[in-house]
Every structure is written in structure tokens, then in C-alpha cells.
Amino acid sequence: MNNNTHVIFGTGPVGMALLRELKLRGVQDIRMVNRSGRLPGADKVQVIQGDASQVSKAIEICKDASVIYHCAQPGYLNWPKQFPAITKGILEGAAAANAKLIYADNLYMYGSVDTPLKESLPYRAEGSKGITRAKMAEELMNAHKNGKVRAAIGRASDFYGPGVLQSFMGERVFGFALNGKPVDMLGNLDVLHTYTYIDDFARGLATLGQEDRALGEVWHIPSAETITTRQLLQLVFDELGTNGKVRASSRSVVSILSMFHPMMKEIKEIFYEFERPFIVDHSKFAGEFGGHLTTPHKEAVRQTIHWYRSMRNVGNK
Description:
This protein is of the alpha/beta class. The chain has a domain at 6-157 and 196-223 and 280-287: 3-Layer(aba) Sandwich (Rossmann fold). Helix content is 42%, strand content 16%. It is built from eleven helices and 13 strands. Helix 2 packs across helix 3 and helix 7 crosses helix 11 (297-316). The chain starts with 5 loop residues before the first strand and ends with a helix. Pfam families: Epimerase.
């Protein structure tokens, strides 16, 4: 990969994992963009303060960029109101710079299906977050089709790994288990569920940014072997050497809590993911780009726990 300017909107877990991956690939000129303009620990990286929903600012930030990565998102409760404007700003910035645009997406737009998830599935989400994701994906692909921007979309399942806190496999699993607390999960722990290690997601996004033949397409980024949630939790407990406890909330419990807690109402919308098998098919990506190695869950869990431990040690100083 050459050393042209790469711009990453969003400095959350995905953006930071992508920063690590681009550095490994030898990219020198990287701009990180967030609302604060601050990024502790990001040495030798330009950090720019900016609100991507402001089109003029997004265009300014993207000037002379070769690849732009859309890893930004508003708070979970604010997706329908704020997400489309962020995506539009980044799209306009990429178009003005004639840069490739790679969008880090999830799987909500498909809605509830009874088959493995493939890129060819129609968008049948019924909830507001899935509908929002579907509309943004359609906007990006239409902009590519119309020649406005060169874009590709990379999608991943529920992810975990260094820096991941606000995820179904985040703080309430790794952090709680490390502190000897029961971990909190949803639904049926014994059905197959694809989980994505965040560094694998970043590796796939970087590949999309590197390969022109990825443009104009949606790609499911490869994840490690799909196992059950219980099996993944057991890997966590085994690495910690503990007999962990798990609390799994049923749909009825979430429904009751949703009457009092806004976040539970949001979770209720995508609860279907955890009731029956949720398997992501990434054969399209593997067939096109080949040789894309994923991190085995055992090793990914080990690295994630190492990160959580290091953060706990920092907090105790």
C-alpha cells in the first residue's frame, strides 16, 4: 500500500483498530478526525477536530486524501436523527477529494432472517436503527453508481477486542469477568452466533481501501469460526482461570425493562440476533481477496483480556 493520505473519521474502537492496521501496512500519512481534536496515546498521527455532519468542514478535512474511512457514529440512541447527516458529510468530503470511501457498517439492515447472512439479502429491517443503516448504505451505493464517489462497504458482526467497551461482548463481559462479576448476555447462549474480533474487522476494511476491485460492492468482513455465545464465554473464563457466572436476559425481561430504560428499548429492536442462529457468510470476501487470515477466538480473547488488564492497571496507578 502506498503512503498517500488516509483519513479516518471516528476514533472509537473501530477507528483505532484501523489506525493500528494502516500503520502495520506502512501508511505514514494518517489523519484521525473526532469532535474533540484530542486523542491520547496516538503519537505521530495528525488529529483533527471536526463535526462530520458539517459538510464544509468535512470537505476541508478530506482535502488531498486518497482513502477515507467512515468509522464514525453518534450515540446509540441518536442514530436516526444524527447518523444520516454524518454519513452525508463524509460522502461529500470524499466526493470533493475524489478519494475512495470505505464505510464500516454493521448488519442491522437485513432484519430478522432464518438463513446465514449474505450480501445479496434484501434490506428488511423493521426497527429505526436498521432502517437508518439501510438508507445510508443505499445512499452510498447509489452515489457510487452515479459516479459521484468511489465507495465500498465493509460489514461485521458484533465485535470484541482491545478498546471495545460498548458492545454486547464488551465491558459487561470482559470487564465484569475480570472483576469476578457475573457477565450479562442476551437470549439463547447455545445457538451459533458470529462474533468479529475488531482487529480482523480493521484488516478487512484496510483491504477494501487498498483494492480498487472492492469498489461499488458490499462485503462481509471475515470473522473467525462461528461458535455459540456460551463457547466464546467459556474461552474467556478459561483464559482467566475462573468459573464464571452468566446472566442471560430473555426477551420478556428486556421487554419489561424497555418500558423504563431507553437503552433496553433499543436492544429490544435487535433481540432477534440472540434468539436463534446468527451466522455471517463471508465467502464473497474470501473468494475475491483470498488469504485473509482471521484471529482464532482463543487468541483474540487472550489479547482482549490483556488489554482490559492493562487498562485496569493504568486506572489503579
